[in-house]
Predict the 3D structure of the following.
Amino acid sequence: MGSRSTLVSAGLGGLEGRALKAGDLLPRGPGRLLVRPRRLPWIPLYDTLIHLRAVPGPQDDCFTEGLETFFSSVYTVSDKANRMGYRLTGPAVARDGGAPQSIISEPSIPGNVQVPPDGQPIILMVEQTIGGYTKIATVVTADLFKIAQVGPGDQIRFHPVTLERAHALYREWAAYLHNMRDVLDEL
């Protein structure tokens, strides 16, 4: 489909379907170069402790005590993180007695935080047509970019927000992106 991305687990795309290594050269492909270089008017900051706002649910009712653990703990990004999802390690998120370890498969959206049977959360980064793990929370849209900037060993802390607050954050984020487009067009 024209993408230069790689899905290493399936051996597809990129250079021979493998991860990049020292000395690899990537062809630029078709398209025109910029007339002049552009630089952002600020320097991005990449912290090693990322704070993410999240709305509890949709299956937060399965985690009465686990919800407190989830929102009061710091999690570390494992080496099993990729564009599909970020597996975290830290205090296990316990399900309530009698709560199912999995649910009937349902669609997932970017930002859903699944809790598999081992209690170690997974932040999903792409929508999936099916997913059968209970989801304790959903990271707000305005914070999804932060997840894409973390690497293995970085830490994440979740903070609960209401759905109404998540909607307000989305409107603020959309306005910010609109303003950034204007700033970059002027450069």
Summary: Residues 163-186 form the longest helix (24 residues).
